[in-house]
Amino acid sequence: MFKKLVLIGGAAICTGTVLWGVTKYRKAKTTLKGENNVLYIKNSKPRPVSETVEGQFSIIGELKNIFKKSLIKSYPNFNIKMVISSPSKSGDYQCNSAMGLSKILKESGTKVSPAEVAKTLIKNIPANSIIEPLSTGDHGFINITLSQKFVVSQIASMFLEGVRPPKVDKKRVVIDFSSPNIAKEMHVGHLRSTIIGDSLARLLEYLGHDVVRLNHVGDWGTQFGMLLAHLNDKYPDYLNNPLPIGDLQAFYKESKKRFDEDAEFKKRAYAAVVELQAHNPDQTKRWQLICDTSRKEFQKIYDRLDIKLTERGESFYQDSMTKIIEDLKQKNLLVYEEGRYVMFPQKENLNPLTVVKSHGGYTYDTSDIAALCHRLEVEKADWIIYVTDLGQSSHFESLFDCMERAGYIDKNRVRIDHVGFGVVLGENKKRLKTRSGDTIRLVDLLDEGIKKSLDKLIKKNRERILSPEELEQAKTSVAYGCIKYADLSNNRKGDYVFSFDKMLADEGNTAVYILYQYTRAKSIARLANVEPNQLLNYAKNEDIKIEHPNEIKLAKEILKFHDVIQKITEDLVLHPLCEYLHKIATAFSEFYDSCYCVEKDRKTGEVIKVYMHRLLLCEVTANILAKGFDILGIKPVNRM
Ligand SMILES: NC(=[NH2+])NCCC[C@H](N)C(=O)O
Predict the structure, then answer these.
(1) More confident residue, 309 or 21
(2) Which residues belong to CATH 3.30.1360.70 in the chain?
(3) Residue 464's pLDDT band (boundaries 50, 70, 90)?
(4) Which CATH architecture does the domain made up of 59-160 adopt?
(5) Long-range contacts of 606-610, Cβ-Cβ distance < 8 Å, separation of 24 or more
(6) Are 640 and 477 in contact (CB under 8 A)?
(7) Is the pLDDT score of 127 beyond 90?
(8) Which pLDDT score is estimated for 265?
(9) What is the model's pLDDT at position 433?
(10) Measured in angstroms, how far is the CA atom of residue 185 from the centroid of ligand 1?
(11) What is the tens place of the pLDDT at every residue in 276-295?
């Protein structure tokens, strides 16, 4: 007799409405909660050590090593780079080096076809537990399939030890990001810098680097003259009334208007800057007040997006500038031109830096020279990263070139990157602005995100299923998650179109889709009522078999994690990580819809079978997605 079964693939046991359009599986009213699972633990035999491969690592890197060994044995005189790619149509990876090698051999007088070369390489592959026996494809391409045992051992390791970062040489990294300007509104360009910079910092922290996150705020310069003069006129009593400026943006505009139209005011503005630079106590206090007002506004954004930053603005470096300029003068590197001191880079096509202005003031360039010196000498950085819009690329090229010319940067010891990004466009493909043409205030943008996210949840009737706290958490997770993800999933070098509708879509490469798959993966072990210990014992001791095509596909996708991490660290881009997470979520969804994790009797609710290896895959999927979210600065929720 056949028992009537309820097949449970996780959300299949959710009692509520299906959230984000995933409706293919069957729903059941019963859950496994409170039932005792007795089926799982077979008599345990530890997996033989010889079958496991130690640690977690970049698969492509390891395959390169394996093929390199074969190359040395096959053609000891030809030391070329081995090229491994993924994905390929046949097999999981492919070695593409035979063709190039055949060419090189031909040039040196030995005629061997790519297919012959491939055969020789295959013959000399060292014994290993990572790949299945190899076959050649067209043109000497070698198709590589990972061995079952290896896949299983990696999945087990990711479950037992967590998702380990690849091993790297630890570096001290200074990352300069966000960096808005005092008294001006923090705009969408700064939002991009904040989101990308924070995510890169998280990535480097995950890898174990010693990361210093610096906010190089624009808190100095001639624009302060007009602000100080205006503050003095408008709020003579500013000391007794510590926060007179309500709207700093408007205050800035008023000052600017007076500065442009009133010659007498302009004079006083210049005088105020000179006084500030000479550390006049009154001007310093006014300056402090203006900075504090801005700082509070910035902090609201950072708190909402969970961004940690150390403020070290342009003003911090003012006192060290004179010494640096002296040094540059002594080294004969400054040219006096039209009343200014400039420094020319070595490369001809680059603009010179303005180091001292005609009335003796310092510039953005001067602050950056001093900041770079500080980061090298005092912070002892071996890697410095600047995250700004691509419009500043030539500024940074000149800066890095000049600093090398002055002998301040040793390129063999220090890595320096300008991480540039494109413009944020509105749905009309023009720069994102408000309807009236003003720059969008970030607080308003975040508020709108929150509202749209809540609308979406309510449209899906989630307020009926989630507790008020859960709804609140889901709302913020979705809103900020989707804003960050939309930015990070686009290649940063391009412009990107900001569209709440697109970022809140249920399907496709969106935070919403991936967050939802995460909740499904998380819920399954919880709802199947399997104790963490049982799964732990299983992963440690049992002979795990991953056999269903959708299990294999998911597992192999998971194994690409370290390759992705390596690539994004080299290129300092985040969209490949987003693409990877999207692929995992999709592979998981396919697996989840076709592979039931738990079978139970519909009538009695009795558990008939639990597929432990599938629970394990769910757990590792959740771990991988969580790790990815963590790097992207997105906070997942358990229910949404
Ligand atoms: N060290 C730097 N220059 N960092 C970037 C500063 C960005 C500048 N405050 C701006 O808003 O454009």
Answers:
(1) 309
(2) 59-160
(3) very high
(4) 2-Layer Sandwich (3.30)
(5) 606/35, 607/32, 607/35, 607/37, 607/39, 608/3, 608/5, 609/39, 610/37, 610/39, 610/40, 610/528, 610/530
(6) yes
(7) yes
(8) 96
(9) 86
(10) 14
(11) 988 999 999 999 989 998 99
Distance of CA 388 from the midpoint of ligand 1 (Å): 7
Residue 135: helix, strand or coil by DSSP?
A: strand
DSSP string for 65-92: HHHHHHHHHH-TT------EES--SSSS
* Centre of ligand 1 from the C-alpha of residue 179, in Å: 5
Pick the atom of ligand 1 nearest to 217's CA. Answer: 9
Which atom from ligand 1 is nearest to the alpha carbon of 314?
1
Ligand 1 atom at shortest distance from the alpha carbon of 392: 12
Report d(CA 228, CA 502) in Å as an integer.
44
From the CA of 386, how far away is ligand 1's center (Å)? Answer: 8
Reduced to 3 states, what is the DSSP secondary structure of residue 178? coil
CA of 264 from ligand 1 middle (Å) equals 31
User: Residues spanned by CATH 1.10.730.10 within the chain?
Assistant: 442-632
Q: Residue 216: CB within 6 Å of ligand 1?
A: yes
- CATH number for the region 442-632 comes to 1.10.730.10
φ, ψ at 465 (rounded to 5°) = -100, -35
178 backbone dihedrals φ, ψ, rounded to 5°:
70, -80
**Residue 368 Cβ contacting ligand 1 at under 6 Å:** yes
Tokens found for residue 207: 């890898």
Question: What is the residue with the minimal CA distance to atom 6 of ligand 1?
Answer: 179
CA-184 nearest atom, ligand 1 = 11
- Enumerate residues 6+ apart whose C-beta is below 8 A from 606: 35, 600
Is the shortest distance between the CB of 388 and ligand 1 below 6 Å?
yes
Amino acid 548 reads H
Asked whether the ipTM of the predicted complex exceeds the cut of 0.90, the reply is yes
Q: Is the minimum distance from the CB of 181 to ligand 1 under 6 angstroms?
A: yes
**This prediction's pTM:** 0.90
- Ligand 1 atom 4: the closest Cα is on which residue? 216
